[in-house]
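Service request form, structural biology core

Requester: graduate student, group of Dr. S.
Request type: structure prediction, single chain
Budget code: on file
Notes: please return the result as structure tokens.

Sequence provided:
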Amino acid sequence: MDLSAINPILFIAGFFVAATPLIFAAIGELVVEKTGVLNLGVEGMMIMGAICGFATAVETGSPLLGFVAAAVGGAALSLLFAFLTQVMLANQVASGLALTLFGLGFSALLGQSYVGVKPPRLPDVNFGLLGDIPVIRPIFLSHDIIVYFGILLVIAVWAALKFTRAGLVLRAVGENHDAAHALGFKVKRIRTLAIMFGGACAGVGGAYISLIRVPQWTEGMTAGIGWIALALVVFASWKPFRVLLGAYLFGGLVQLQLNLQGAGVAIPVEYLAMSPYVITIVVLVFLSRDKSAAPGSLGRIFHASS
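Core staff response, request fulfilled:
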């Protein structure tokens, strides 16, 4: 075992890369749940985004187009969930689970011809003279644009929910959909748009895994990140900045277990691989205290016509 082989600067910088897919998936699901909808299909939308983004980036040579395609793919799959739950009034839990199974299977079919293919690389953001600052540059200023976009998205969602009329309407639908409907708000339309937003975010998160974090296509490569995102939203009490902190906690633990494996720590690899998931859940459970934060209509079916 050689812990001196762990570079602390690269270790901390790795937090951002490991946390980014979770940030996108969790913040999208937070918006969905704020409208009172529980979508357990995050994993399926992420893996569909991963293959849509990967295939588009490989065929066009543009990683940015790949992320756009991933957002479209995730949003398109989320429409299936919206149709089942908002039009057919199907059970949200069962529909979400079915969406995940469908996404995992369909993505495996679509990705058969892309196994072993390397995607084009997305360059890091050029910060000019700021990029010459030692320590600060490799930790905070050496990442691709998607990392920074994820942070900005969290800030934008927080501001929109807190300060805008659209955010107020969205929260009103989630707290009491019957009252919102009585006030003239189109509950099903609002929920469908939120579901599509969550699907697009999950798709981008999935594409980040296949294009940046692990630049290759592998069946089932999201490896449970969608389920962590679902848990993170609940344990963060539906607060965007707590989601961000939880994502970085998970990212740090992922980097730690990878570095410990590289340093030859005498712990079975299986235990190290599962540790980020277990520790993240345990810590977030203890940090979560506000049980009243859940939207009042979460998981409830809206029966009135929109």
